[in-house]
């Protein structure tokens, strides 16, 4: 059994948060540079220029790319042969999150659903995070993290289609979500699509799809094709950067299905669309 | 698409020359307020009480910045989505508000108020929060410090880059831009 120290996990998470909220990941930078090159509308091009300039300033000054430093979202794979010493893994993630957000001068964006009060002194600074745990073979701990902003989360949607709706029904739903969202979620977007599983699990997969690096292929050739088709069709909507009209609305569409196979209940076709703004702050570490 | 440099507070004359799609660089005082602060401002108006700042010609920026690091004027400070302020904006416009800075669509009531009382809605680039912070030269909390990032701040800005989304003539850049670039 491999042993990992609690304090090491806290520090790794803290550092990952501070770095990734101030440094745009290479895949996003590349995708935005390409969008800037391809954009045909003058206004949207000017917007993309500001977005790229912003990334440069943020990186140089270690200043948050966006003031909405999000809810902290984690997907954690825990090896069966690893043990945390000095505390629990969950507590370490909480402590690392609080440290990262506080010491990185990031915004505490969590609040009571009803009173809307920020409970940073009672519950903790930007706590709680959303964590999905999985147990896998091996002796490593893999942690994927994203700072998920509210604007793009507010326009995300999930549904359960009738099986007869098929692939066309899925496409229509994705298009409707992006079209209705318009300028609000800060396009150009990454569109995460979860298909299959259950109502709730489709949403989890749609979120996890956002962690995949842009420019990587979907391992399922049929879904890879569907991603490309959807991207092309979504870019015909004309929404453009920040919704000001243009040709570059979507940087990538990423699809995840319920594995193994691409399964769901015989009566259902669950589909979820999680929208990600252009400030996609995601990172991962292996401990 | 024209480019203007304007000083706040804004006048009727200033906003009358602006058309949806114009780029504007704002200099002067701008106040910050989000949902919670808007609710309080409207409550004060309904109770006939004095507001923490003069609305005449004022510009409100919808922002909740990150905390400043030691020595910084302000943290990152990009716009938040504006529709959440739609229920409160019309009465503020009626009382003299001339400009709002945010991102995303406004409802018809806000657009109508912009037409009727001559006010404009500016779009700033969401997520360009470190870049926009450079245009903010001073920041001071003037009301509701207990709201943290949602407190009302008086900002002094220089050449704050915005785009006119809704003008006083009823134009909407989001609708215009999309119509122009949509492929059927």
Topology:
The complex is a heterodimer of chains A (287) and B (184).
Chain A: E1 2-5, H1 6-20, H2 26-38, H3 42-61, E2 71-79, E3 82-85, H4 89-103, E4 130-136, E5 141-148, H5 150-153, E6 157-161, H6 166-181, E7 189-195, H7 199-208, H8 221-235, E8 250-257, E9 269-276, E10 281-286
Parallel strand pairs in A: 1-3, 2-4, 7-8
Antiparallel strand pairs in A: 2-5, 5-10, 6-9, 7-9
Chain B: E1 3-7, H1 12-16, E2 23-32, H2 35-46, E3 59-61, H3 89-94, E4 99-102, H4 108-117, E5 120-123, H5 129-133, E6 136-143, E7 152-166, H6 173-181
Provide a compact summary of the structure:
The complex is a heterodimer of chains A (287) and B (184). By secondary structure, chain A is of the alpha/beta class.
Give unreliable regions of chain B as ranges. Answer: none
Strand order of the largest sheet of chain A: 4-2-5-10
Major sheet of chain B: order of its strands? 2-3-4-5-7
Largest sheet of chain B: 5 strands, mixed, barrel
Query: Treating each run of at least 4 consecutive H or I residues as one helix, how many helices of chain B?
Result: 6
Count of distinct structural domains of chain B = 1
Structure write-up:
The complex is a heterodimer of chains A (287) and B (184). Chain A contains eight helices and ten strands. Chain A is an alpha/beta fold and 287 residues long. In chain A, helix 1 packs parallel to helix 4 and helix 2 (26-38) packs antiparallel against helix 3 (42-61). The model of chain A has no long low-confidence stretch (mean pLDDT 97). Chain B is α/β, with parallel strands linked by helices and 184 residues long. Chain B is 26% helix and 27% strand. In chain B, strands 2-3-4-5-7 form a five-stranded mixed barrel. Chain B has a single domain (3-183), classed as fumarase (Alpha-Beta Barrel). Chain B has helices at residues 12-16, 35-46, 89-94, 108-117, 129-133, 173-181, and strands at 3-7, 23-32, 59-61, 99-102, 120-123, 136-143, 152-166. Chain B is built from six helices and seven strands. Chain B is globular, with a radius of gyration of 16 Å. Chains A and B meet through helix 3 of A and helix 5 and helix 6 of B.
């Amino acid at each position: 059994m491999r042993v990992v120290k609690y304090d090491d996990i806290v520090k790794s998470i803290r550092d990952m948060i501070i770095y990734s909220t101030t440094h745009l990941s290479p895949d996003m930078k590349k995708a935005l540079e390409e969008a800037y090159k391809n954009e045909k509308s003058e206004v949207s091009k000017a917007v993309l220029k500001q977005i790229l300039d912003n990334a440069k300033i943020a990186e140089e000054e270690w200043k948050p790319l966006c003031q909405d430093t999000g809810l902290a979202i984690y997907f954690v794979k825990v090896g069966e042969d690893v043990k945390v010493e000095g505390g629990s893994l969950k507590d370490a993630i909480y402590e690392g999150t609080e440290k990262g957000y506080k010491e990185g001068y990031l915004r505490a964006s969590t609040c009571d659903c009803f009173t809307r009060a920020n409970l940073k002194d009672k519950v903790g600074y930007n706590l709680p995070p959303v964590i999905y745990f999985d147990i896998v073979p091996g002796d490593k701990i893999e942690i994927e993290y994203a700072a998920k902003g509210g604007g793009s989360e507010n326009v995300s949607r999930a549904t359960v289609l009738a099986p007869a709706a098929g692939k066309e029904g899925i496409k229509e739903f994705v298009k409707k979500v992006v079209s209705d969202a318009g300028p609000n979620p800060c396009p150009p977007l990454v569109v995460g699509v979860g298909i299959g599983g259950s109502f709730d699990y489709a949403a989890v997969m749609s979120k996890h799809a956002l962690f995949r690096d842009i420019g990587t292929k979907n391992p399922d050739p049929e879904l890879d094709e569907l991603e490309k088709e959807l991207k092309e069709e979504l870019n015909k909507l004309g929404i453009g950067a920040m919704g000001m009209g243009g040709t570059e609305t979507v940087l990538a569409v990423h699809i995840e299905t319920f594995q193994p196979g691409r399964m769901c209940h015989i009566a259902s076709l669950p589909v979820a669309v999680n929208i990600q703004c252009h400030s996609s702050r995601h990172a991962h570490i292996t401990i | 698409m024209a480019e203007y440099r304007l000083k706040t507070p804004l006048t009727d004359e200033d906003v009358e020359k602006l058309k949806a799609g114009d780029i504007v660089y704002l200099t002067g005082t701008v106040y910050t307020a989000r949902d919670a602060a808007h609710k309080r401002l409207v409550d004060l108006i309904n109770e006939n009480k004095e507001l923490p700042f003069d609305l005449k010609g004022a510009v409100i920026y919808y922002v909740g910045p990150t905390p400043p690091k030691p020595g910084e004027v302000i943290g990152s400070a990009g716009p938040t989505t504006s529709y959440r302020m739609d229920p409160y904006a019309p009465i503020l416009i009626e009382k003299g508000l001339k400009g709002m800075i945010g991102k995303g669509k406004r409802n018809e009531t806000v657009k109508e108020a912009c037409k009727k009382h001559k006010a404009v809605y500016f779009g700033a680039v969401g997520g360009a929060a470190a870049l926009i912070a450079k245009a903010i030269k001073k920041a001071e909390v003037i009301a509701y410090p207990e709201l943290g990032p949602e407190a009302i701040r008086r900002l002094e800005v220089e050449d704050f880059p915005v785009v006119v989304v809704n003008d006083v003539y009823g134009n909407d850049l989001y609708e215009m831009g999309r119509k122009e670039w949509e492929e059927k």
